[in-house]
Amino acid sequence: MIRLGVNIDHVATVRQARRAHEPDPVAAAILATLGGADGITIHLREDRRHIQDRDVFLLRDTVTTRLNLEMAAYDEIVAIALKVKPDEATLVPEKRQELTTEGGLDVIANMASVTGAVEQLKGAGIHVSLFIDPEPGQVEASHKVGAHAIEFQTASYSEAKGEAALARELEKLRTAAAHATGIGLHVHMGHGLNYWNVQPIVRIAGVEELNIGHSIVSRAVLVGMERAVREMKQVMQEHYPNPRRA
Ligand code: PXP
Q1: Looking at residue 95, what is its pLDDT?
Q2: Residue 219 is part of which domain span?
């Protein structure tokens, strides 16, 4: 059975929109776990635009499945990871202006910094994954730097327009997955996966884990909206004890 890591960054994005206390990603992680998530994935960005340090430490204490920390190979973030000891660390590229992670990590061009981060994380007993494009050179380089796993970025697949382009991207992922498993790397995939495009991905041989965020949090907002409004109407009509003031 392929593991589902639920990325809850967007829950923190909503909270940070008001610098408020809700919605708390810790609560979202508990509910995602009740729903069957096999792991919780969060990205601690250098600019702290969504997930905060406090979330990382609280999630480490409360996630009972697997905590996957997505991170850039910056010294400050590596130091936090070494303290928190997530079950898994996924190294990603990070640019300040980007809306989300764009493209995979260029392991070939950043061999020295990636090797340093992988060694430190592995030394702390953390399972290390590298978020890369499905390219043979990047797979080889990931193996060379000693990663346990690679996560193929599926953005090119999820953004492909037309049957031919889609088939081409799927084939690229299939070939890259076979290459990676053949040299002993665990294979994960993620980015842009949703309720309509996930099925061909789960059929690729060797895939062990998917990390999905945007589509799940988007659906959660919509499937929860009706109930949230109904409950507000109810509170407006009733004397509802406020537990914060009790
Ligand atoms: N995997 C990685 C490495 C990511 O950076 C992200 C986005 O934070 C995801 C998976 C999840 O992507 P999405 O939010 O598009 O499902």
Answers
A1: 76
A2: 3-245
